[in-house]
Structures are given as C-alpha cells and as structure tokens.
Amino acid sequence: MADERKTVFSGLQPTGNIHLGNYLGALKNWVRLQDEYDTVYCVVDLHAITVDYDPVKFHQDRLEAAKVLMAVGIDPGRSLFYFQSQVPQHSELAWILGTMTPTGVLNRMTQYKDKVAKGVAANLGLYSYPVLMAADILLYRASLVPIGDDQKQHLEMTRDLAERFNNRFGEVFPIPDPLIPETTARIMSLQEPGNKMSKSDPNEKSRVLILDSPDDITKKIKSAVTDSDPDVRFDWDEKPGISNLLEIMSGCTGQSIDDLVAEYGDKGYGVFKQAVADAVIAELASVRASYKALDDAEVARLMTKGALDARQRAEGFQQEIRKFTGLSGI
Ligand code: TYM
After folding, report:
1. How far apart are CA 81 and CA 117, in angstroms?
2. Is 112 exposed, middle or buried (0-12, 13-18, 19+ CB in 10 A)?
3. Sequence-distant (≥ 6) Cβ neighbours of residue 146 within 8 angstroms
4. Suppose 188 and one of 7, 137, 244, 302 were both cysteines; which one would form an S-S bond, judging by CB atoms 3.0 to 4.6 Å apart?
C-alpha cells in the first residue's frame, strides 16, 4: 500500500561538534516526527565542503555525525537516513533550481553574508548553498521541515523556488512549511549570549556538545556568562545569559519559562545554574548511553543501505522532474 503520510525532510552538516542548539532547535523534532510522518533525514556532506576542510578528518566527522544522530534517536528502520553525496539526484535538482534562482535573491542571504564578513573565502558553492538546500527538500516533495531559526530565510527561498517551478512547469512540489520550536529556536552561546551557539565558535566553553560528560556540562553551564543582578527573570534585553539558560532548561524539562521563573526567581544564580546543568545532563544521558552502544561498522552499513533506498526513491522523482522540464520525453 502506498504511504499516504506527509513527508518531512531535514539535514545537518557533519562538521563535528553537534551541540545543544542543534539538539533543542531541530533534532528533538526530527526524532518526534518519526512517529507520525514519512521522515527523510540527511547528513548534508556536500553543504559542509563549501568551507575549507581536511578530507581525512571530514570522512571521520561524517560517520561520527551519523552515529550521533542515531544515538539521538534517528531510527534507520523508520526514517530514510543517508549521506547527501551518495544520492546524486540532489545535485541535479540543485542545478535545475539554480537556473531559476535570481542572483539578487542569493545576494540577500544573511548566512552567506555573515560567513564572508567573518573571512570565509567566498566561492560558488557557498553562494549557491541555499539552492542545494532547496533541492534537498523539494526532491522528496517534503511538506514539513524541522529547523532552527537560523534556517528560516533559506526555507523562505525554498518556498519561493517551489512556487516558481510550479508556475513554470506544473504543480510538482508542495510548498514546504518550516517547523521551528517556540522557545528553543535560537539557543545562544554560553559565553556571548548575543551570538547563537555555533559549531564553528573557537571557544569550546560557548557550547555544550551532545556527547559532553556530566562534569563538562556542569563546568560549562556554571561558567556561562550572566549578569550581576541576582534575579532569575526572562528578559532578552537586560538578561540575555539567564534568558538563554531558561530556554535551555525549558527545552530539556518541558517546563514552561513562567514555571521556571516562579521556581527559581529568587533562589540565586548558583542554585539555578546547577538546576540547568542537572536538567541538561538528565536529558542527554540516554543519548550518551546509546552512542556508546553503537558500532561504527554497523552505522556505516546502515548508511550504505539508507543511500540505496534513497537513490531508488529519488530516481522516480528525478524522472518526473526531467519530464516536466523537457530533459526527457513525456
Ligand atoms: P546545521 O548543520 O548548521 O544545523 C542543523 C540544525 O540545527 C539548527 N541549529 C540551531 N537551532 C537552535 N539554536 C542554535 N544555536 C542552532 N544552531 C543550529 C539549524 O537551524 C538546523 O536546523 N543548512 C542546514 C543544513 C541543511 C538543511 C537542508 C536543513 C541542508 N539541507 C534541508 C533542512 C533542510 C544547516 O547548515 O544546518
């Protein structure tokens, strides 16, 4: 029987350092959606090579990312899960969509502008990164895309490209909606709460990694930059460090920010930070345990199988797109 469920697609770059921001902003939703939707998840290795990298380390990081995602709860038995580069249909669709992407739109992409402003070498791959992302999503006719806030602009561009394609060639793609969490869409750096928590921040204390030991988690949360007024209040302007910790704790425990403020408002930062650290440790304990139980060779085998299944599915979509665009006969 045909699968009538709507399709979910999302991706993560295998640049090492998968952190609490990735987890609370996106991965928790990836896992949850497996119960209800046809889920397709991808380690987007082609996106990751748009910046300078070491091929040997990269190859390890790729497998490591797949292993961490499985430990978080991505189940290759329930989700299509694979490395992007092993399914060449992504790249072909990216080329087709690229022919419909005005350069003016790409010039407005803030992630590209931020990276170049920070000194990353501008190249065509980095520039057209959002087009490949659109191809990832549209290839599988995805309707829902679980992401953090920083990918919102890319998703808007994806929606726009889907509309352009449909208007020109016929109704092929559903217009995908983002799924962005209400409270944890943008987890900030623990050291500079004005910046988002990021894999590429050179300061390791700025982020909690998903596989950090309980000791490291406690140390990092305790040394999180806050302010000198002792009240625990949710106020991004005056208290960004504390507001970030409140969001982190809410994301880990499921308690509302209001309840947390009522509970910790006047207890002082020492007690609050310990409670946040305990909540993060409890949330990530099962991920650490699952990670330890996973075997590299088995993860690699599952990824090869995932790529075979994904290619088979993507080939059908590719044929259809080729017909619509006149690249093959109807
Ligand atoms: P990437 O690898 O940077 O991040 C993976 C996911 O984590 C989210 N995220 C955050 N959420 C909250 N707070 C943070 N500090 C934080 N940092 C990262 C990201 O929003 C993302 O959802 N371009 C994508 C990868 C991609 C993709 C796709 C995503 C390629 N193709 C198709 C969705 C659909 C990226 O670089 O994510």
Report:
1. 34
2. buried
3. 8, 10, 26, 29, 30, 33, 178, 179, 180
4. 244
Beta-bridge partner residues of 177: 144
Confidence of residue 329 (pLDDT cuts 50, 70, 90): confident
What are the catalytic residues?
115, 196, 199
pLDDT (mean) for 199-218: 96
- Using an 8 Å Cβ cutoff, are 117 and 93 in contact? no
Helix (H, G, I), strand (E, B) or coil at 44: coil
CA distance 166 to 23: 34
C-alpha 230 to ligand 1 mean position (Å): 34
| Cβ atoms within 10 Å of 93's Cβ, excluding its own | 25
Do you know the residue count of the chain? 330
Q: Is the pLDDT of residue 263 over 90?
A: yes
Average pLDDT over residues 33-45: 97
Ligand 1, CB cutoff 6 Å, lining residues: 9-13, 21-22, 25-26, 44, 47, 133, 136-137, 145, 147-148, 150-151, 185-187, 196-197
* Cβ 162 vs Cβ 176: under 8 Å: yes
pLDDT band for 16, please (50, 70, 90 cuts).
confident
**CB atoms closer than 10 angstroms to residue 183:** 15
Residue of 23, 24, 44 to mutate, ligand 1, most atoms within 8 A of C-beta: 44
Is beta strand 144-146 parallel, antiparallel or unpaired with respect to 177-179? Answer: parallel
% the chain with pLDDT above 70: 99
Beta bridge partners of 145: 178
Q: pTM of this prediction?
A: 0.97
Q: What is the pLDDT of residues 136-154, one digit of tens each?
A: 999 999 999 999 999 999 9
